[in-house]
Automatic annotation (TrEMBL):
Residues 194-205, 215-232 have a biased composition (Basic and acidic residues). PANTHER family: RIBONUCLEASE H2 SUBUNIT B. GO terms for cellular component: nucleoplasm; ribonuclease H2 complex. This is Ribonuclease H2 subunit B wHTH domain-containing protein. The lineage of its organism: Eukaryota, Metazoa, Ecdysozoa, Arthropoda, Hexapoda. Residues 42-166 form the Ribonuclease H2 subunit B wHTH domain.
Amino acid sequence: MAGDSLIQEVLTFSENKRSWFIDDSVKSDGKMHLSTPIDPIFLVLPYLRKSQLACPLDQILKDDEFPETERLLSCSGLKHLSQVADKKGDEELNAYKYNEEKALSWLTRKTERVSEILRQKGIHVSSNNAVSATFVKTNTDTTENYLKYAHGVVSEYLADDLSARLSKHLGLPEPETGPNKRKQLASANTNTEATHKRPKLEAQEPLKNGALDLSKPEKVPKTSITAKDKARAKSATGSKNISSFFKKK
């Protein structure tokens, strides 16, 4: 936090085999750390949702596991907290109660803003990976593509259930559920196995009254004898089996 009034998020960019050249030396750790401001309401939102009743903000942000959370009270960004919650009582009480309808509207504006910035920067997002337009010949991204990608970015700061509600509020198509997808894959595998296991039926004799004619003996395929087999048999004529040498005379 910068002076307890502004929160900065530190992002780390790291790649293998990356280093820094500093003057005449080489630093093996080539990580890059970027500091960007973040709206403190994203950090307060989980505490607001957890509180069932209208409570003073200092009580809502009381966390024994993370005591530094109380420093959020001095953030200037919390003056817009009424965009996600209903304020109760007078200014001195400073009590709030979570309002999901307000929160979804606020998150929708945030998502649309991210989507618009991605479009203005010419970022290609249809492959679910942000790529600069410099490396893409033709950008075929639609408004829905940008909105879906922006929803993914904003969802990094949200609980899973709230992310799902935001997606529905944005009118995005629901992703295919896991069980249904597994069911389709299982069905496809079953059909494939049945195809592989199904034996090939050879040509049968004509049917009699709908049944196979089993009165005829099976046709035994004739084995052709090659010239090599004939020569081997001829050379073996008159020779004794090796076991005959060990019999009692």
